[in-house]
């Protein structure tokens, strides 16, 4: 029977820590599993994610908006300016930290937590939210090559956590090698 879906983000730090070794074993197995090619793996992950996304209500969660840096790209600036009724230069001054962005190999980030555009558990600029917010949580393409970062996200995002749990139930761990302990 599949593991029940967890929607309560407050449980995630503990649950993700408990599953960490299992997720890492799955990552190793996926990295070395030549039978499951990149496209097939992406398709599998998307098929597992769809019913989870349908059940987890982001409007009741907002944990990503509360706890993660929001990455910005240049195209976000005029859209934010229009949504906030301020000049693009003011968006840059007030909401775009280029230095902190560069440290993360991003163009800029919003330097506040929670995100200043969060109202309760809702985005107050939803129609004009940054590009990164539209994509999160992004599993594909290239799930295999981003799995390390995805595992890090399991303690923040219920969707990520549940997708990894569902995937771990389908991926055979690598055979145990006694030489690993040496
Ligand atoms: S802009 Fe909106 S969606 Fe993006 S982090 Fe802020 S509140 Fe969340
Ligand atoms: S994307 Fe994840 S962390 Fe963000 S609101 Fe939805 S379930 Fe919560």
- As laid out across the biggest beta sheet, the strand order is 1-2
Number of domains in the coordinates?
2
Q: Which strand-content bin applies to the residues?
A: 5-15%
The distinct ligands, each listed once, are: iron/sulfur cluster
- Extract low-pLDDT stretches: none
Query: What's the total number of strands?
Result: 4
**Overall pLDDT:** 93
Cα shape:
elongated
Q: What is the count of DSSP helices, taking H or I runs of 4+ residues?
A: 9
The helical percent reads: 40-55%
What's the SSE pattern? HHHEHHHEEEHHH
Termini Cα gap: 36 Å
Structural class: mainly alpha
Largest sheet: 2 strands, antiparallel
Characteristic terms for this protein:
4 strands, 182 residues, 2 domains, two-stranded antiparallel sheet, mainly alpha, binds iron/sulfur cluster, 9 helices
Description:
It is a single chain. By secondary structure, the protein is mostly helical. The chain folds into two domains: 9-63 and 138-172, no CATH class; 69-118 and 125-134, no CATH class. It has nine helices and four strands; from the N terminus they run H-H-H-E-H-H-H-E-E-E-H-H-H. The strands form two sheets. A two-stranded antiparallel sheet has the order 1-2. A hairpin with a 2-residue loop joins strand 3 and strand 4. Helix 2 (38-55) packs across helix 9 (158-168).
């Amino acid at each position: 029977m599949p593991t029940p879906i967890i929607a309560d983000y407050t449980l995630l730090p503990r649950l993700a820590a408990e599953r960490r070794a299992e997720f890492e074993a799955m990552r190793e197995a996926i990295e070395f599993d030549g039978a499951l090619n990149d496209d097939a793996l992406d398709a599998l992950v998307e098929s597992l994610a769809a019913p989870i996304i349908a059940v987890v209500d982001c409007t009741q969660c907002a944990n990503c908006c509360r706890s993660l840096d929001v990455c910005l790209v240049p195209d976000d600036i005029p859209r934010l300016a229009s949504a906030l009724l301020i000049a693009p230069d003011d968006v840059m001054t007030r909401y775009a930290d280029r230095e902190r962005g560069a440290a993360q190999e991003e163009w800029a980030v919003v330097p506040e937590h929670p995100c200043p555009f969060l109202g309760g558990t809702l985005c107050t600029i939803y129609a004009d939210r940054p590009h990164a917010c539209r994509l999160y949580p992004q599993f594909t393409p290239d799930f295999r090559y981003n799995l390390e970062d995805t595992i890090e996200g399991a303690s923040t995002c219920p969707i990520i956590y549940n997708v990894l749990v569902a995937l771990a139930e389908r991926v055979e761990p690598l055979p145990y090698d006694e030489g690993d302990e040496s």
